[in-house]
C-alpha cells in the first residue's frame, strides 16, 4: 500500500507565520493610529445609531440647534440629503439627530453643519470594517461555494488533506502578496497616470512573478510538498480568485485596509473550502460509491452540498 505524502511542516509553519505577522502588524497600526481631526472643526465625533439616528459629539456646547442646521448625505449621493426631522441635546456637547430614513453603520456618510460651520465624514471603524470584509469574503461570499471560482485547483488538490492544507496556506500567502502589490501599483502608478486599461495585464504579471518565486523556493527547500502540488501550483497564476481580488479592489477604489481584508478573507475562505472538501473526499474512499459517480461526479455533488450549507451565512449583519 502506498504511503501518504508527508507534510513539510517547516514550510507550512513559515508561511503561516508570515501571514499571521502581517495581519498582526496591520491590526497594531490600526489600533495605535490616532484619529485625524481637522483643526477648528466643531464636530468631534459622529456615530450612527440604527435604525434612523446619529449621535454627534461637538467640541463646544451647541446654541439652540435646529434640524435645518444639519445636512446629512450618503457619500455616494452627496446631492440627495437625508432629511433631519428632530434634534435633541444630550449631556452638554452631545446631540442626537433623528433622520427620515434608515441608516446603517457599515455605510459611508457625510455630516455638515451651518452653525457653526463644519463637516465630518462618517465611516465605520477600521477594525469593524476589516472584520466585516474578512468574514464576508471568507463565509458569506466565499469565492468557491458562492461564486464558483477557482474550481480547477479546488477539485485537483482536494483529494488529500495534507496537500489541501499546504495549498490553502500557500494560496493565502500568494493572494495577500499579490493583492497588496497589485493595489499599490494600481493606486500609485496606474490610477495617477490614467492607465487603468492595463490593470489586467499588470495584475497577471504580478501574480506570475510571485507564483514563480514560490515555485522555485518550494522546489529547492521542500521538494516533497512541491511534488504534491504538481501542476496546480503553477495554475495559481491563472486562478480566477487570484485575479478577482485585485480587480475587485480596483473597481471599488478600495483603501489599503479594505484591500488587505479582502485578500486575507478570500485566501482563508479558499483554504477552508479546500480543507472541508478534502476531509469529505477522504471519507468517501471508505464508502460504496456507484461506478458512474466515482471521481469528479461525486466531487461536484459534494461541492453542491457545501454550497447549500454556505448559503446559511447569507444575510448575516455583523454591525447589529
The coarse silhouette is elongated
Q: How does the helix and strand content classify structurally?
A: alpha+beta
The largest β sheet comes out as: 4 strands, antiparallel
Low-pLDDT residue spans: 1-10
Order of helices and strands: HEEEEEEEEHHHHHHHH
Radius of gyration: 24 Å
Helix content: 40-55%
What fraction strand?
Answer: 15-25%
Side-by-side strand order of the widest sheet: 1-2-6-5
Q: Give the overall pLDDT as a whole number.
A: 82
Distance between the termini: 54 Å
DSSP E strands, number: 8
Tell me the number of helical segments per DSSP (H or I, 4 or more residues long): 9
Provide the domain count: 2
Description of the structure:
- The chain is of the alpha+beta class and 320 residues long.
- It has two domains: 81 residues, Sandwich (Immunoglobulin-like), CATH 2.60.40; 187 residues, no CATH class.
- Helix content is 51%, strand content 15%.
- It contains nine helices and eight strands.
- A four-stranded antiparallel beta sheet has the order 1-2-6-5, with no helix packed on it. It has a four-stranded antiparallel beta sheet with strand order 4-3-7-8, with no helix packed on it.
- A hairpin with a 2-residue loop joins strand 7 and strand 8.
- Helix 5 packs across helix 7.
- The longest helix is centred in the middle third of the chain and has 30 residues.
- The N terminus is likely disordered.
Amino acid at each position: 500500500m502506498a504511503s501518504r505524502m508527508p507534510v513539510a511542516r517547516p514550510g507550512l509553519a513559515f508561511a503561516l507565520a508570515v501571514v499571521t505577522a502581517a495581519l498582526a502588524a496591520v491590526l497594531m497600526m490600526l489600533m495605535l493610529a490616532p484619529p485625524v481631526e481637522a483643526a477648528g472643526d466643531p464636530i468631534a465625533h459622529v456615530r450612527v445609531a440604527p435604525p434612523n439616528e446619529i449621535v454627534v459629539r461637538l467640541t463646544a456646547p451647541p446654541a439652540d440647534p435646529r434640524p435645518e442646521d444639519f445636512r446629512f448625505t450618503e457619500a455616494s449621493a452627496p446631492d440627495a440629503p437625508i432629511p433631519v426631522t428632530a434634534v435633541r441635546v444630550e449631556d452638554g456637547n452631545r446631540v442626537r439627530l433623528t433622520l427620515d430614513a434608515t441608516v446603517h453603520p457599515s455605510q459611508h456618510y457625510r455630516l455638515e453643519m451651518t452653525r457653526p460651520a463644519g463637516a465630518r465624514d462618517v465611516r465605520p471603524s477600521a477594525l469593524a470594517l476589516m472584520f466585516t470584509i474578512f468574514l464576508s469574503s471568507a463565509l458569506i461570499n466565499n469565492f468557491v461555494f458562492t461564486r464558483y471560482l477557482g474550481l480547477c485547483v479546488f477539485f485537483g488538490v482536494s483529494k488529500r488533506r495534507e496537500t489541501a492544507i499546504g495549498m490553502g496556506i500557500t494560496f493565502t500567502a500568494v493572494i495577500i502578496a499579490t493583492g497588496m502589490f497589485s493595489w499599490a501599483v494600481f493606486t500609485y502608478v496606474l490610477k495617477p497616470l490614467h492607465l487603468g486599461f492595463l490593470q489586467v495585464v499588470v495584475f497577471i504579471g504580478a501574480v506570475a512573478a510571485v507564483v514563480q518565486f514560490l515555485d522555485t523556493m518550494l522546489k529547492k527547500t521542500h521538494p516533497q510538498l512541491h511534488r504534491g502540488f504538481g501542476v496546480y501550483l503553477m495554475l495559481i497564476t491563472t486562478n480566477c480568485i487570484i485575479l478577482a481580488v485585485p480587480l475587485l479592489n480596483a473597481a471599488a477604489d478600495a483603501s489599503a485596509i479594505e484591500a488587505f481584508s479582502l485578500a486575507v478573507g478570500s485566501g482563508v475562505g479558499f483554504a477552508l473550502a479546500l480543507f472541508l472538501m478534502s476531509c469529505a473526499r477522504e471519507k468517501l474512499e471508505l464508502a460504496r460509491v456507484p461506478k458512474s459517480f466515482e471521481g469528479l461526479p461525486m466531487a461536484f455533488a459534494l461541492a453542491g452540498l457545501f454550497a447549500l450549507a454556505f448559503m446559511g451565512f447569507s444575510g448575516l449583519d455583523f454591525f447589529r
